Automatic annotation (TrEMBL):
It holds the Pfam family OmpW. It is found in: Cell outer membrane. Residues 1-21 form the signal peptide. It comes from the Bacteria. InterPro entries: OMP/PagP_B-barrel (IPR011250), OMPW (IPR005618). This is OmpW family outer membrane protein. Keywords: Signal.
Length: 242
C-alpha cells in the first residue's frame, strides 16, 4: 500500500471511527466547566407594605441584573438506544452577583445569591453509534432554588431605606423547561470531549424585608421584584464511558 493510500485510510478511520462508543446500554459520566449567563434583568421594585399596611407602590426606574458565573459541572448519561439517551446534570451551585440598574446603577453590586439548578434531559443523537462526532438535541426539566440571598451593599440599604435600616432577601424556587443542543467527540472508545448549550426560560420573585429603627418607631418594609434570569448555559466537558 502506498503512503497516499495509508494516509487516506487513516483519515477515513478517524472520521468514521470503529468503536460502538455511544450505543444502547452505554453509560457516560462527564465532568467540566459550566458558564451560566443570565440574559434578562429585574422589574422595578414594588413596595408591598409598611408594618403590614398595604402599599403596592412601584419604584419607577429601579432595577437589577444577575451577573454571569462559572462553576464545576457533572453529568450522568445512559443510552437507552443507539440514538436516545437520558441525562442527569448537576454541579456546584454558582454564586451570582446582583448589580443595580436604572436609578440603582450608582450603587454597583447590591448583593449575591447562590443558584441550584439540577436538570433531567432526554437527548436524540444523530449519526451512527460508531461515529466519532455526534451532534444531538435535547429537552428536559429543571428545578431551580436559591440559597445565600444576601444584600451586601449597606450604602444602598441605608440610602434607600434609612440610616438604621437592615435588609434580608429570599427568592422563590420554580420548575422550568430546558432546551439543549450540543455534540460529543470520541477521542477513544472510552473517552470523549463535549460541548453543549442550554437555554432555561427561568424567572423568580425576590422578596426583600427591611427593618428600620427610626425616631417614629420601628418599621418593617416588605418589597418585591420579579427577576427574569433566562440563562444561556454552556458546558465544556470531558466524559468517560463505562
Amino acid at each position: 500500500m502506498t503512503n497516499k493510500k495509508i494516509l487516506v485510510a487513516s483519515v477515513a478511520m478517524l472520521i468514521a471511527g470503529t468503536a460502538q462508543a455511544q450505543s444502547a446500554g452505554s453509560n457516560i459520566i462527564s465532568l467540566g466547566w459550566f458558564r451560566v449567563m443570565p440574559t434578562s434583568s429585574a422589574d422595578p421594585l414594588v413596595l408591598d407594605s409598611i408594618n403590614g399596611f398595604p402599599l403596592g407602590q412601584t419604584q419607577t426606574g429601579t432595577g437589577a441584573k444577575i451577573k454571569s458565573a462559572d462553576t464545576l459541572g457533572i453529568a450522568f448519561t445512559h443510552f437507552f438506544t443507539d440514538n436516545i439517551s437520558g441525562e442527569i446534570v448537576g454541579g456546584i451551585p454558582p454564586q451570582h452577583d446582583v448589580e443595580g440598574t436604572g436609578t440603582y446603577s450608582k450603587y454597583g453590586t447590591l448583593g449575591n445569591v447562590r443558584q441550584w439548578s439540577p436538570a433531567a434531559l432526554v437527548k436524540y443523537h444523530f449519526l451512527e453509534a460508531k461515529s466519532k462526532f455526534r451532534p444531538y438535541v435535547g429537552i428536559g426539566v429543571n428545578y431551580t432554588w436559591f440559597t445565600g440571598e444576601t444584600i451586601t451593599n449597606q450604602t444602598f440599604v441605608k440610602s434607600q431605606f434609612g440610616p438604621n435600616a437592615t435588609m434580608t432577601a429570599s427568592a422563590k424556587s420554580s420548575w422550568n423547561p430546558v432546551f439543549n443542543i450540543g455534540a460529543n467527540y470520541a477521542v477513544t472508545d472510552n473517552w470523549f470531549i463535549g460541548l453543549s448549550v442550554s437555554y432555561l426560560p427561568l424567572s423568580s420573585t425576590a422578596t426583600l424585608t427591611t427593618h428600620n429603627a427610626g425616631a417614629s418607631g420601628n418599621q418593617t418594609i416588605v418589597s418585591h421584584t420579579k427577576i427574569k434570569i433566562d440563562p444561556v448555559v454552556t458546558f465544556l466537558n470531558v466524559g468517560y464511558r463505562f
